[in-house]
C-alpha cells in the first residue's frame, strides 16, 4: 500500500457509509407511522443518526491524516472554488454539522418534526454533493484506472450497501419491522449484484489498459487478483444469504436471535468486501504523462 492508503480507505468508506445511512434513514422516516429504531445499550440510546454522527466524526479526524498535518487543515478551505479537495472538506463539515443538528433535535424529545425534516433533507442533499466532490478528486486524466464511470459507481454502491446494511440491523431488532426489512434486503441484493458486476467490469477495464506505462501494476495475477477473486466470492455468498433471509423471516419468527446472528455474519462479510474493494481501487493506481 502507498503511504496514506490506510487512512484514505477508512476516510472514504466512513464518509460514504454515513451518507448512505442517512439516505436509508430518510427512506424509513418518510414511511407512514413511526418506527422506534433506538437501541438501549448499557443505559445509552443508540440510533441510526448517532451511528452516522460517529462515522462522520471519525471521517473528519481521518481527513486530517490524509491532508498530511492537522496544522494544515485550515488551508483546505482556502480554494473551495478551484479545488475539489477543498470542496470535499467543506461539504464534509457541513454534512457533519447537519447530522449533529439531527442528533440534537432528536434528543430534545419535543415536537420538532418540521425542523428535523428540513435538516434531514439538507443532509441528504449535502451527502449527495459530498459523494460528487469525492468522485471528482479521483477523475484525473493522468490516472487512467480512475478516470472513468467506475469511480463514482464504486463510491455510490459503497454508500448504499454499507448504509443499507446498518439500517437493516436496526430494523431487525423488532420483529414488527420484518416486512420493511425484507424489502430493504431485496434492494441490497440488487445493489450487491450490481456492485459485483461493476467490480468485474472495472477489472476488465484494468486488464485492457495497454501501453500506458512500463510499470503498470499487474491486475490479473498475484495478490491483487487473489483479493479480487476472494471479494467476488464473498459478494456471491452475501447475495445468497440475504436472498435466503428475505424469504425466511416473518414477524412471527421464534428464532429472533438466530436471525440477528445470521445478519451479523452477512454484515461482517460485506464490510470486509467493501474494505477489499477500496484497497483494490487504490492499488490500481498508476500515472501517465506529467
Structure notes:
With 290 residues, the chain is mostly helical. The chain folds into two domains: 1-138; 144-290. Helix content is 70%, strand content 2%. The chain contains eight helices and two strands, in the order αββααααααα. It has a two-stranded antiparallel sheet with strand order 1-2. β1 (39-41) and β2 (44-46) form a beta hairpin. α6 (178-207) runs antiparallel to α7 (222-248). It is globular. It starts with a helix and ends in a 7-residue tail after the last helix.
Major β-sheet profile: 2 strands, antiparallel
The total domain count is 2
Fraction in beta strands: under 5%
SSE class: mainly alpha
User: What is the helix fraction of residues, given as a range?
Assistant: 55-70%
Global mean pLDDT:
85
Number of helices: 8
Query: Based on DSSP secondary structure assignment, what is the total number of beta strands?
Result: 2
Please give the order of strands in the largest beta sheet. 1-2
The N- to C-terminal Cα distance equals: 22 Å
Low-confidence runs of at least 5 consecutive residues: none
Order of helices and strands: HEEHHHHHHH
Overall geometry comes to globular
Our Rg estimate from Cα atoms comes to 20 Å
List keywords for this structure.
290 residues, mainly alpha, 2 domains, two-stranded antiparallel ribbon, 8 helices, 2 strands, 70% helix, globular
Write the layout of secondary structure elements.
Layout: H1 5-29, E1 39-41, E2 44-46, H2 48-66, H3 84-108, H4 113-138, H5 150-171, H6 178-207, H7 222-248, H8 256-283
Antiparallel strand pairs: 1-2
Amino acid at each position: 500500500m502507498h503511504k496514506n492508503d490506510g487512512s484514505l480507505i477508512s476516510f472514504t468508506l466512513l464518509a460514504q457509509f454515513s451518507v448512505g445511512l442517512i439516505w436509508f434513514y430518510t427512506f424509513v422516516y418518510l414511511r407512514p407511522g413511526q418506527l422506534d429504531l433506538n437501541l438501549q445499550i448499557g443505559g445509552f440510546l443508540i440510533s441510526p443518526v448517532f451511528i452516522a454522527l460517529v462515522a462522520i466524526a471519525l471521517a473528519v479526524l481521518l481527513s486530517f491524516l490524509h491532508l498530511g498535518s492537522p496544522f494544515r487543515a485550515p488551508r483546505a478551505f482556502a480554494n473551495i472554488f478551484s479545488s475539489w479537495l477543498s470542496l470535499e472538506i467543506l461539504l464534509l463539515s457541513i454534512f457533519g454539522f447537519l447530522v449533529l443538528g439531527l442528533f440534537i433535535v432528536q434528543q430534545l424529545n419535543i415536537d420538532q418534526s418540521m425542523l428535523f425534516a428540513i435538516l434531514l433533507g439538507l443532509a441528504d442533499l449535502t451527502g449527495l454533493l459530498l459523494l460528487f466532490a469525492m468522485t471528482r478528486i479521483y477523475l484525473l486524466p493522468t490516472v487512467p484506472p480512475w478516470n472513468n464511470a467506475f469511480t463514482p459507481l464504486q463510491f455510490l454502491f459503497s454508500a448504499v450497501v454499507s448504509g443499507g446494511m446498518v439500517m437493516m440491523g436496526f430494523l431487525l431488532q423488532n420483529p414488527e419491522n420484518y416486512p420493511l426489512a425484507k424489502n430493504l434486503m431485496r434492494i441490497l441484493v440488487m445493489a450487491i449484484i450490481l456492485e459485483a458486476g461493476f467490480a468485474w467490469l472495472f477489472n476488465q477495464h484494468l486488464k485492457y489498459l495497454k501501453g500506458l506505462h512500463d510499470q503498470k501494476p499487474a491486475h490479473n495475477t498475484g495478490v491483487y487478483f487473489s483479493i479480487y477473486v476472494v471479494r467476488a466470492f464473498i459478494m456471491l455468498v452475501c447475495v445468497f444469504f440475504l436472498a435466503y433471509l428475505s424469504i425466511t423471516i416473518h414477524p412471527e419468527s421464534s428464532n429472533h436471535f438466530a436471525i440477528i446472528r445470521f445478519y451479523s455474519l452477512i454484515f461482517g462479510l460485506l464490510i470486509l468486501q467493501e474494505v477489499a474493494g477500496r484497497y483494490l481501487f487504490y492499488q490500481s493506481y498508476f500515472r501517465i504523462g506529467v
